[in-house]
Design goal:
- The relative contact order is 0.10.
- The longest helix is centred in the C-terminal third of the chain and has 4 residues.
- The chain folds into 4 domains: about 140 residues, Sandwich (Jelly Rolls); about 80 residues, Immunoglobulin-like (Sandwich); about 130 residues, Galactose-binding domain-like (Jelly Rolls, Sandwich); about 70 residues, Immunoglobulin-like (Sandwich).
- Strands 21, 22, 23, 24, 25, 26, 27, 28 and 29 form a 9-stranded antiparallel beta sheet that branches. Strands 1, 2, 4, 6, 7 and 9 form a 6-stranded antiparallel beta sheet that branches. Strands 30, 31, 32, 33 and 34 form a 5-stranded antiparallel beta sheet that branches.
- The chain is elongated and about 95 Å long.
- It is an all-beta fold.
- β33 and β34 form a beta hairpin.
- Helices cover about 0% and strands about 55% of the residues.
């Protein structure tokens, strides 16, 4: 029987890491297609039978020095397992035991090894799920001395208001991704006008916008993004603010959640409108687009929902996920509407967040011109019957998602008891053609 020599080092940070992983591996298993665990394809996986125990043996082709083993598990993984080593594929020793490993997709890095072997065996003894053991990739690396391989800058992405500062920190990583102590001074730099970063990584800016900060150490570089937003409040998330759209769930563009998005119908034009409930002083607009975004669009404002003034025109905007920063505006509006007229993709317009910045203002403007007041709906809130100042020639009712739920002609009052309780938008047209859009609360 052949013997081999190995030592283990259980250290908080390993003194040995890994270099280029070994290639040309083959594998056998107790069940399943073992080759998929060593095919260098993270999209394929080995999965065993649905029982315990199950094993996978990886063959390096010849006896090699092993420093690190990485196991990239799928969600169906091992709670308890062992790893052992052999030179002949029959006699395994040097067993390492793992217990109570967490569920969910994970990567187990077994470093600090100093093993000369040809075969490595993973023996699963308890599963986290009822399925078989499932491994995307089983990787083996040689022993190498750790060296500085990459930098990290934290936070990698941040947002501050103009006038504030952001402290950035730089760190080093070795080949394994373990922390590596930096021994030389980091140089900091930042792109764009008005922004600066000092020798300790403290960022500040006198201008709004998106800036890229770069850390350089021993010819390695890493970047971080700092978004500098207006000092004014984001009016889009204020109390009583609502959003409607030509199609889709408009509210998801103003829910202050960058993980949800409004998406329109897949045609042109499409619009989304924010109602602040009362006139506001608008100073800046920031639109976070998903990849399905606008090539051409306009932004308009209104104080009555009927008469619109174009404030911004954008044409030939780039493809891909992007954020449009539209700074230093100055207008008063109750309503702000974005209308997309040409798309970059065949899908609908898609916005993660539609942020309108500004301040509350005491306006001398009436929310509705006098002529339109003649057809205004009342009372509001309403419980049974809705009345109108003057006769309405045409009435359309929309829910808060912008979907039309009812239409009427030539009405002076309306029984609303058949409508579900909640907020609606009524669009009223009088005999002169004047149109009023009004938000009502049916209780």
């Amino acid at each position: 029987m052949k013997h081999f020599y190995f030592t283990m080092a259980f250290l908080a940070i390993s003194v040995l890491t890994f270099g280029q992983k070994y290639s040309g591996l083959t594998a056998t298993a107790s069940s399943g297609n073992a080759a998929l665990a060593v095919d260098n394809n993270p999209g394929t996986r080995w999965e065993s039978a649905f029982e315990d125990p199950q094993w996978l043996v990886v063959d390096l082709g010849e006896i090699k020095a092993v420093g690190v083993v990485k196991i990239l598990w799928e969600g169906a993984n091992a709670k308890d397992y062992t790893v052992s080593f052999s030179t002949n594929g029959v006699d395994f020793s040097g067993e390492i035991t793992f217990t109570d490993k967490p569920g969910g997709s994970r990567t187990d890095v077994i470093d600090g090894l100093n093993v000369n072997c040809r075969y490595i065996k993973m023996n699963g003894t308890a599963r986290n799920l009822t399925y078989g053991y499932s491994i995307w990739e089983f990787e083996v690396y040689p022993q190498v001395t750790p060296v500085l391989t990459s930098l990290t800058v934290t936070p990698a992405s941040s947002s501050i208001k103009i006038g504030e500062t952001q402290q950035l920190a730089v760190g080093g990583l070795d080949q394994l991704g373990n922390p590596f102590t930096l021994t030389t001074v980091t140089q900091w730099s930042v792109d764009g006008s008005g922004a600066s970063v000092d020798a300790n990584g403290l960022f500040s800016s006198t201008q709004k916008g998106l800036f890229t900060v770069t850390a350089t150490n021993t010819e390695l570089t890493q970047t971080a993004k700092v978004e500098v937003l207006p000092a004014a409040n984001n009016l889009s998330i204020g109390e009583g603010v609502t959003a409607t759209a030509s199609a889709g769930n408009a509210i998801e563009a103003i829910d202050n959640n960058p993980g949800t998005r409004w998406e329109s119908a897949s045609e042109d034009p499409q619009w989304i409108m924010i109602d602040f409930a009362s006139p506001k002083n608008v100073t800046d607009i920031v639109i976070s687009w998903e990849a399905a975004n606008a090539k051409d669009y306009i932004i308009e404002s209104s104080n009555n929902g009927t008469d619109w003034t174009t404030r911004v025109t954008k044409e030939a905007m780039p493809e891909g996920m992007r954020t449009d920063y539209i700074f230093d505006l100055s207008f008063e509006a109750r309503y702000v509407r974005l209308t997309g007229t040409a798309r970059n993709l065949n899908y609908g317009y898609s916005i993660w967040e539609f942020k309108v910045f500004g301040t509350n203002t005491v306006s001398t403007l009436s929310p509705f011109p006098a002529a339109e007041k003649q057809i205004m709906a009342y009372p509001n809130p309403v419980t049974d019957r809705l009345y109108f100042h003057n006769k309405v020639q045409q009435l359309h009712i929309f829910n808060t998602q912008g979907q039309k739920v009812a239409s009427f002609k030539e009405v002076s009052e309306l029984d609303v008891t058949s409508f579900a309780k909640g907020f609606y938008f009524v669009r009223l047209t009088d005999d002169s053609g004047k149109t009023l859009t009004q938000k009502i609360d049916i209780r």
